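2.7 Reproducibility. Because tokenized structures are sensitive to small changes in the input, we list the exact sequence used for Fe-S cluster assembly ATP-binding protein, including any N-terminal residues retained from the expression construct. No trimming or masking was applied before prediction.
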Amino acid sequence: MTTPSPLLQVRDLRVNVGERTVLHSVSLDVAPGSLVVLMGANGSGKSTLGLTLAGHPNYRVASGQAQFAGQDLLAMNAQERARAGLFLSFQTPPDIPGVKNNLFIRTALNAVREARSEAPLDAFDFLGSARAAARQLGLPEAMLGRPVNEGFSGGERKRNELLQLALLQPRLALLDEIDSGMDVDGVRAVVQLVQKLRAQGTAFVVVSHYLQLIESLQPDTVLRLDQGCIADTGNLELARGIARTGFARAAEPVEA
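Resulting structure tokens (single pass, no recycling of outputs):
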């Protein structure tokens, strides 16, 4: 049985933020439909990796390569990456004052549909899909007509990110602490949506410290990022070990 080619392939990625090198050398593969959990202490570079792959202009790639679906990801701007099927949820989703949530998501969705050579959705059809998805995620329908994230609680912001994910159905989703600020029902909604999209072929890179969520997601691979490098590669046992001992102990050298 042949192994499918990686959807995302990163090799020796080195990233600077201002004058500081945050990622020193990161390499990883993400297969279609797979799920990779990324763990690491605060400041280890987890969010930097996601923002770099998504094309944030403040994160400068000093060296290395990244291929997405056989294309040079680093040669694309942020909009091209999104249209190609890459999705990023923010650790702290920002407000977008004056832009209604439903218009924002429909505009993004139609840009992706255009890239897929699919017909755009009109407002009526989109609202039907958006209302159904919002109900499943426990997001009040009234949120669709409000400015993006303005006045939303932390949990509502994260559910709104899930709504975007559910409607955009990307090829690869980078979820940066999507469970942060979520209640029990919100975490359950994360797991259910990820399982549904994985079954449809979406791949995931999930940043999380929450062992119960990680165990529920059943990742294919768990990576520990330390000082801008992948320090450990494993499975659920790696996540469980980190949960038991913490990152400081995980980073200690093993005695001979």
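The first strand starts at residue 8 and ends at 17.
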